[in-house]
UniProtKB/TrEMBL annotation:
Organism: Natrinema salsiterrestre
Name used for this protein in its record: Molybdate/tungstate import ATP-binding protein WtpC
Catalyzed reactions per annotation: tungstate(in) + ATP + H2O = tungstate(out) + ADP + phosphate + H(+)
InterPro entries for the chain: AAA+_ATPase, ABC_SmlMolc_Importer, ABC_transporter-like_ATP-bd, ABC_transporter-like_CS, Mo/tungstate-bd_C_term_dom, NA-bd_OB-fold, P-loop_NTPase, Transp-assoc_OB_typ2
Region of interest called Disordered, as start-end residue ranges on this chain: 289-312
Length: 379
């Protein structure tokens, strides 16, 4: 069994607390991605799991064994590093066989196992080449083959795709996922790339300032972020500041910096009181856009025209900039001195130019709200 249990894991470097009280159980055969910005503690956590760093406090169990104080060579783990760490003076097959040699496996058997592993990563035709002559993606496959050749209980990957270009990285993400499904081993993968984590992970553990902030399946952490940091880190969004103006049994009305009232739907009207400061998150995927000449009219107060009980919101703004991003177009829209962005597919984008007035609409049920301390409001 290769279930991993981290309990109260901590790492200090002098007065610097790099990892603080990290506790998580990683299931046998699971692929967990540790996701976070630079300096969040994710690589330090992985290095402690690998035995390359000794925890200041806490314990690490792999299966039923406490490996907290064991060096790397006494653990049933293998690590793939960011720079792949291939030996330039050895051939590809010698690189893959190196770990087996260190384990005392005979020459004939280790070459057979190394060649078989190269076949599984589609690199058998490069067995006798110098790894320095390979492309980045080929080096990555060799590094994976070398790590998997020793049949580890746990494979640890420290940002292994960060040196690849975007297209190759995306291809390798799919291959890594397929390799994980084939080998059915426990993988722990460190990355700062949100798309990479969502593509690979069974579960994602989000780290910030040395803390493991939230752990969950990809759709869970995206749809239900625990706090404002996670909401902002997982993808682009429009953060809008506001103050609760009044509540009803099924809605909350928030006066915002957009110069307009935003209506949220709620099943929990007692969650907020009048005068509470909020940050609202308006994700681009919940926003629809049309010409300002279309849609509902504003009432005499300058607020959106809303029927009682409706949580449909709309505002009018002026397109400031148009940014083409391949398959999508991003529009920067000025609304009462505040800049928002909306996105449309290229096929639907041709009607708006800088200077055009557009109406942006969304359903209040799709808005996320956060308190001043960053915590999520349960609406």
């Amino acid at each position: 069994m290769s279930e991993i249990t981290l309990s109260g894991l901590e790492k200090r470097y002098g007065d610097t607390l790099a990892v603080e009280d990290v506790s998580v159980t990683i299931d046998d055969g699971e692929l967990l991605c540790l996701l976070g910005p630079s300096g969040s503690g994710k690589s330090t956590t992985l290095r402690m799991l690998a035995g390359l760093e000794t925890p200041t406090d806490g314990t690490i169990h792999i299966g039923d064994e406490d490996v907290t104080d064991r060096p790397a060579y006494e653990r049933t783990t293998a690590t793939v590093f960011q720079d792949w760490a291939l030996f330039p003076h050895k051939t590809v097959i010698e690189n893959v066989a190196f770990g087996l040699k260190m384990e005392g496996v005979g020459k004939t058997e280790r070459r057979e196992r190394a060649r078989g592993m190269l076949e599984r990563v589609r690199m058998e035709s490069h067995a006798d080449e110098n790894p320095m002559n390979l492309s980045g993606g080929q080096k990555q496959r060799v590094a994976l083959a070398r790590a998997l050749a020793v049949n580890p209980d746990v494979l640890l990957l420290d940002e292994p795709l960060s040196n690849l270009d975007k297209r190759l990285s995306e291809d390798m993400q799919i291959e890594l996922r397929e390799i994980h499904e084939e080998f059915e081993e426990t993988f722990v993968h460190v990355t700062h790339d949100q798309d990479e984590a969502f593509t690979l992970a069974d579960r994602i553990g989000i780290m910030a300032e040395g803390n493991l902030v939230q752990v969950g399946e990809p759709d869970e952490v995206y749809e239900n972020p625990k706090n404002r940091f996670i909401e902002g880190f997982l993808g682009d969004t429009n953060f809008v500041e506001g103050t609760v103006e009044r509540t009803t049994p099924d809605s909350i009305r928030v006066e915002t910096e957009l110069g307009r009232e935003v209506v949220l739907s709620t099943a929990n009207p007692d969650a907020l009181t009048e005068g509470t400061s909020l940050t609202l998150s308006l994700r681009p995927e919940i926003l629809s856009t049309e010409s300002a000449e279309s849609g509902s009219e504003d009432d005499a107060t300058g607020r959106p025209a809303l029927a009682d009980g409706s949580t449909t919101n709309s505002i009018v703004g002026t397109v400031e900039n148009v940014l083409y991003r391949g398959s999508t177009v991003r529009y920067s829209v000025a609304v009462d001195g505040t800049s928002m962005f909306v996105e449309r597919t290229v096929a639907d984008s041709g009607e708006f130019d800088a200077g055009d007035e557009v109406r942006i609409s969304w359903d209040g049920a799709d808005v996320l709200a956060f308190r001043d301390d960053g915590s999520r409001v349960d609406l």
